[in-house]
Design brief:
Layout: E1 5-7, E2 10-12, E3 14-18, H1 25-33, E4 40-45, H2 49-57, E5 64-69, H3 74-78, E6 83-86, H4 102-119, E7 124-127, H5 132-146, E8 154-156, H6 159-173, E9 184-186, E10 193-195, H7 208-219, H8 221-228, H9 237-254, E11 260-267, E12 276-284, E13 287-291, H10 299-326
Parallel strand pairs: 3-4, 3-6, 4-5, 6-7, 7-8
Antiparallel strand pairs: 1-2, 9-10, 11-12, 12-13
Helix pairs in contact: 1-9, 4-5, 5-10
């Protein structure tokens, strides 16, 4: 049985960050160390984890931090975990697409998920490693082969697309981003990212040309960061914030909050013919417990949904095919 700690009337889960010493992993681990919802933070990487763990352990919060180094300590790091977050992998560099990262990051995700099947097969797993459109299907195949697949507990983290949409709309509307809600559906790369601007609150009144430009900016925001960093990295800080926000939603649900609404790239039937899709759902103790209907889409958004279909299907197939070859 998974080890569960009690603090007051709340569960205090153990959370693992796999890739904790990297550009996303370090700021993400810092944000998680500040969370009152976590009992123990298990940090794993192939280098530098003891230093990161020691540094974080000096922060005066109740979250205990332990660092684990190298493949021989991976399963120890995962023992008893309730939520596993995977930012491990190589970052995107100028001129690279998410697809360019595939061969390296696919192998990394495969190895980490195989360890999850052995050490904490019932854990929730949140994947950040790009290309998410393919790495999540890879993870699903790994879990299926091991007999541990629970589609309600496997997520691709697309929260960064949501917070970018919130931020950019807030700039246009002149409001606090905390007051903005906008659905972002589809996948987590290029045209597969579809902000449903017609459903944004507060409502925005823009010409079709400006709506197209705003959609394109949200879709290409990752490239905007890569170019701004001029070869020194990709979106690490904003991604860490997005992942921490998603983790908080998961932890609230694990703690019994049955009214947690979130977005993520998951095994889904919400759009016929697309076996993985990011949309809004309700989380509960068992993971995804209810999918929220997409609602009415504008003609521009209907077209966007059709445009993404072929690319998203291709990315899903690429992940499934990779896993199939590796598991023969």
């Amino acid at each position: 049985m998974d080890r569960i700690q009690k603090i007051g009337s709340h569960l205090s889960p153990k959370v693992a960050v796999l890739g904790a010493a990297g550009g996303i992993g370090q700021p993400l681990s810092l944000l998680l160390k500040l969370s009152p919802l976590i009992g123990e933070l298990s940090l794993y990487d192939v280098a530098n984890t003891p230093g990161v763990a020691c540094d974080l352990s000096h922060i005066s919060t109740g979250v205990r931090v332990k660092g684990y180094l190298g493949p021989q300590q991976l399963e120890v790091a995962l023992q008893g975990c309730h939520l596993v977050i995977i930012p491990a992998g190589v970052p995107r560099k100028p001129g690279m697409t998410r697809d360019d990262l595939f061969n390296i990051n696919a192998s990394i995700v495969k190895g980490l998920c195989e360890a999850v099947t052995r050490a904490c097969p019932h854990a929730w797993v949140a994947i950040i490693s790009n290309p998410v459109n393919s790495t999540v299907p890879i993870a699903a195949e790994i879990f299926k082969r091991a007999g541990t697949y629970d589609p309600a507990k496997l997520f691709g983290v697309t929260t960064l697309d949501v917070i970018r949409a919130e931020t950019f709309i807030a700039e246009i509307a002149g409001v606090d981003p905390c007051q903005v809600h906008v659905p972002v559906i589809g996948g987590h790369a290029g045209v597969t990212i579809l902000p449903v601007l017609s459903q944004a609150t507060p409502r925005i009144q823009l010409s079709e040309e400006r709506l197209k430009a705003l959609t394109a900016r949200i879709q290409d925001a990752g490239t905007e960061v890569v170019q701004a960093k001029a070869g020194t990295g990709s979106a690490t800080l904003s991604m860490a914030h997005a992942a921490a926000r998603f983790a908080e939603s998961c932890l609230r649900a694990i703690n019994g909050d049955a009214a947690v609404l979130e977005y993520g790239y998951v095994d889904s039937k919400i759009v016929p013919g697309l076996p993985f899709f990011s949309s809004r759902f309700r989380l509960g103790r068992n993971g995804v417990e209810e999918f929220i209907a997409l609602g009415p889409l504008s003609p521009l958004e209907v077209k966007g949904l059709e445009v993404m279909r072929e690319e998203l299907l291709s990315s899903i197939k690429k992940g499934v095919d990779f896993a199939g070859k590796q598991l023969k």
